[in-house]
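Reviewer 2 asked us to include a model.

Predict the structure of this chain.
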Amino acid sequence: MQSGSNQNQSPSSNGHAKVSIEDFQQLIHRMYYEKDLQRGIPGTFMWLMEEIGELASALQTGTDRDNLEEEFADVLAWLATIANVANIDLAAAITKKYGHGCPGCGLLVCFCSIEEKP
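Predicted model (structure tokens):
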């Protein structure tokens, strides 16, 4: 993974600096990589699925915004974790797939049928 830059961070509405996907993945790597590597892809994937379940539950029950934010953040953290273990650069993968528009129709504002999964 390439080294991230904090120069492109700008304050969000809550006063905290926004974090790029690249910087977030590197942060997660620094915090957890050694443990994540020991857990491996299967174990890490199970944690990701647990967090997705918690997010689904929070969305269905209409939980408060703070809890929803935590669950979304947890899902992203575990996605970054499994990407680190699999040696995938999320920012590069996102740019490759979505950086030029919708993968289905190729437009920046998707015109694919609602039934399609682009």
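The first helix runs from residue 21 to 61. Residues 9-87 form a domain with the Helix Hairpins fold (CATH 1.10.287.1080). We have added this to the supplementary material.
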